[in-house]
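Collaborator request, handled under Task 6.
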Amino acid sequence: MNIFKISFKTYFLKAWLVLTAFFSILIAISPSFLLQELFGLSQRGWKEHFFWQLLTFVFILPESAPTIGFLLRLALTLYLIWTLGGFIERWKGPQQLFFLFLGTTVLSAVLALFLLPAETEILFGSNLLLCSLAFSWLNLRGDAKIYFFTVFQVKVKWLVATLLAFLIAYNFIFELYLTAFLYFVLALFGYFYALFVWHSKSPFLWLAKTEGRIIRFQPGLPTLKPDQKKIKKPGSHPLH
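Structure tokens returned to the collaborator:
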């Protein structure tokens, strides 16, 4: 099965891709900080009633500049949104993809507005959104493997976990503590969204027992009586 082959895309996912490319390139080619202050999330912008920042900041790549490195990061970001978002859309529906996007956006915006260290600090959240998307996808397809040069294989779950650890460590080294904290929180949000809403377990076996208990005791889910948990022998009559 090709985990990256998605044949159906909704208008929402396409709009997500277009807006990410548009705002990121717009910020990158802007000669001044005016557009960053208009579309990035900041306490100053909130106080000046730039309420559109609550939506636009998640479509902007951090450290945008007209360089080859920026174009490569943008291409990779768009590709991951296309593949991971498309997989979630196909298996859980476009509405669930939208709710995941909305929840991630609201949570990251609220935390940032409360925790941004200064009014001049500006947050761009495209990578944060992608982090939540990746960890929710991990609960659906975390057993997948990626092959390098058809010989060396890596399990996706370890690749995603390693990238998260790298991003957190990188931001800590450069004293970007809020960004590191947001990466961690939004990874947890994506994981718990998939667990509670989709009832999908993570690929990490050491969490399986706890996740099973959480899913089993959620309100609204059917629970088996003790006598219904018995495995029926072939040819036996069904329990009444």
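The cover message to the collaborator said: "The radius of gyration is 21 Å. The chain is about 60% helix and 5% strand. Please let us know whether this matches your experimental observations."
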